[in-house]
Amino acid sequence: MNSQNTCNNCHQEVQGDFCQHCGQREGIGKITFKETFQDFVDMVFSVNAPLMKTQKLLITNPGKLFREYLSGRRKTYYKPVSFFIIATVIYIVLRSLIQYDPMEGAVANGPKNFESSIFMKAGKYMVTNINNIMFLYVFTMALFLKTFFSRRNSFAEYVAIAFYLVGVYSIIGTIAMFYLKYVDPRYKMIPMLIFVIYMIYALTSYFKNRSFLTIVKLVFTYILSFAFYAGLGYALSFLIVWLKN
């Protein structure tokens, strides 16, 4: 058998550009930077790529995305954890490039010597390590969704939905960051206000229920999950900074 017509992954005969058995591209050899970059571009920017489909539905019909992903259409959409990670990484990279400091202004409004205090250091640590701290938000959101809407889904399913939602929050924060950096830094609440509106829109779409009671429960879900996330994240950051000192 000609090695050029044999899949390097499953060693089955290949007819065409892709293996009919495992789906791997034909002609795979040694890994190169070009191949790695091309795979990334194909995955992210292809019109048919799961990420593009996922992003589109998160805007136009998030309820459909949640229902279909939870019902078993896993290959059609970008996985929630992966979506959360890529959204968070983009936020961190861009924040570093434009040197945006979310804590800017806190010193001026705080007490004397606040900048050098352990409280300020804990806040800076939390912001710097937001990619790790944000995982807490996913689980606190899932916890309160399960609390207020216990009959709809399991906790694990709410965790999957929360990964999508918090990923969108990272995207909103990324866009708002440029406004806060270059236009007006006073409105730091903008990302949170936009996100609570989006969260209500997304979950009422998923539940197919826009009743007043559902919206009220979603508002409480947002408030409590964010409060618990911020409190736990800050407490953990404070503990780490305190132990380092």
Automatic annotation (TrEMBL):
<feature type="transmembrane region" description="Helical">
    <location>
        <begin position="130"/>
        <end position="149"/>
    </location>
</feature>
<feature type="transmembrane region" description="Helical">
    <location>
        <begin position="77"/>
        <end position="94"/>
    </location>
</feature>
<dbReference type="InterPro" id="IPR022134">
    <property type="entry name" value="DUF3667"/>
</dbReference>
<keyword id="KW-1133">Transmembrane helix</keyword>
<protein>
    <submittedName>
        <fullName>DUF3667 domain-containing protein</fullName>
    </submittedName>
</protein>
<feature type="transmembrane region" description="Helical">
    <location>
        <begin position="161"/>
        <end position="183"/>
    </location>
</feature>
<keyword id="KW-0812">Transmembrane</keyword>
<feature type="transmembrane region" description="Helical">
    <location>
        <begin position="189"/>
        <end position="207"/>
    </location>
</feature>
<keyword id="KW-0472">Membrane</keyword>
<feature type="transmembrane region" description="Helical">
    <location>
        <begin position="219"/>
        <end position="243"/>
    </location>
</feature>
<dbReference type="Pfam" id="PF12412">
    <property type="entry name" value="DUF3667"/>
</dbReference>
